[in-house]
Amino acid sequence: MRARTAEDRALIEMIDPVAETLGLAVVRVRLMGGTLRRRLQVMAERPADNDISVEECARLSRAISEVFDAADPIAGEYLLEVSSPGIDRPLTRLSDFDLFEGYEARLETDRMIEGRKRFKGTLAGTDEGNVAIDLDGETDTALIPFDWLIDAKLVLTDELLKAGAEKRAARNASDPDADTHSTDSED
């Protein structure tokens, strides 16, 4: 889910090592748009605290640009956009489902499971390669194979907003200028 298409997967293979040298992890890569002007969206964060500063986004953008200028992996013009995953972030790695356990999420699968492909509920961690989710209106915890997911995202709730505010407050307590350097939105 970190990369949706074959082209995205080829790009992420180039971007991952660049991000790692800067101490960052790529959350998702998407090349979007038609043939005239495309947009390459790269979401990244520090693995230690799932955060990223504006300066780190700029450094990653410059580093990706250097590699892409040499390799020229995208035909035609494109706009490179590097950002944080945002508060209502996509969940792209199995570990994300443990990290955000207890928060509400929307999941979509590539195949039907009990008559549907879309699920909404509270994340309940993982179990042997499956995402555990307490579905809205159901009593049992559902196990959905991670490999069947094509999209997963946290739902913007009061609880998630409160957690984001607490994270910013903690960051500001340790670095008073931190809030001016952080990015909390997807775009």
TrEMBL record:
UniProt protein name: Ribosome maturation factor RimP
Domain spans labelled Ribosome maturation factor RimP C-terminal: 91-157
Places the protein is found: Cytoplasm
Gene expressing this chain: rimP
Pfam family for this entry, one: RimP_N
The keyword Repressor is assigned to this record: no
Domain Ribosome maturation factor RimP N-terminal: 14-88
Its job: Required for maturation of 30S ribosomal subunits.
Main localization, broad class: cytoplasm
Keywords, ordered alphabetically: Cytoplasm, Ribosome biogenesis
Region (Disordered), start-end ranges: 165-187
Entry keyword Cell cycle: no
Family: Belongs to the RimP family.
Biological-process GO terms, alphabetical: ribosomal small subunit assembly; translation
Source lineage: Bacteria, Pseudomonadati, Pseudomonadota, Alphaproteobacteria, Caulobacterales
